[in-house]
Structures are given as structure tokens and as C-alpha cells.
Amino acid sequence: MKDPLLQSLAYISRFYGQANSPDALIADLPLTDGLLTPFLLPRAAEKAGLQAKQTQLTFDKLSPLLFPVIAILKGGDACVVLSIDQEKGEAEVVLPQSDGSEQWI
């Protein structure tokens, strides 16, 4: 089963040079239907040596200093936002359900 939130966290963990397997990130966490939830994300991030905080922001309110960030999308999907081009109204993202390549949307 694909877990876009877990895959996004694993991507950010690798981005920062941490070699954490997805299984290690969720070890001993009370998953819901086998999936990482936004509520559990901070605990999983701690296992990777990272900090996570859930907040609701629009893309124009994100500071470039925060990137990369995990965006939780409508419908429960998630992606990693690497940067925002305000002039073009586009975001550079990694969609974990794809091949993991960076793309502009």
C-alpha cells in the first residue's frame, strides 16, 4: 500500500542526508489503516532527526527558508514542495506516487 505522507517524509529525510527507511520512521507508531497520519507526522519526523509542525498556510505565505515542506493535499494525498515561483504561480514538487522526480505544477 502506498503511503504518500510517509514517502514524503522519507524524501525529506534523504534530502537532509539521513538514511532512514520508511519502516524505521513508523516503527512503533499507532498507524491508522497502516498509514502515517498528519497527527503522527511529528513523531515520525523525530525518528529522522527532524522537526515537523502542522499548520495551514497558502503557498504565498510560505517562507523560502522553510523548504522543503510536506503539503497535505485534499483527498489525503501529500507531496513535497521544494520551491515556489510566485511570479508564475507554480510550485516545484515531488509527488511520491510518481517516480520521485521533481516537477513544476
TrEMBL record:
Origin superkingdom: Bacteria
MF terms from GO for this chain are: ATP binding; peptidase activity
According to the entry, every stretch annotated as the Peptidase C39 domain falls at: 3-77
Record-linked Pfam families: Peptidase_C39
Tell me the Gene Ontology biological-process terms attached to this UniProt entry. proteolysis
User: GO CC: one term?
Assistant: membrane
Q: Which InterPro entries match?
A: Peptidase_C39 (IPR005074)
Q: What is this protein called?
A: Peptidase C39 domain-containing protein
- Organism classification: Bacteria, Pseudomonadati, Pseudomonadota, Gammaproteobacteria, Vibrionales
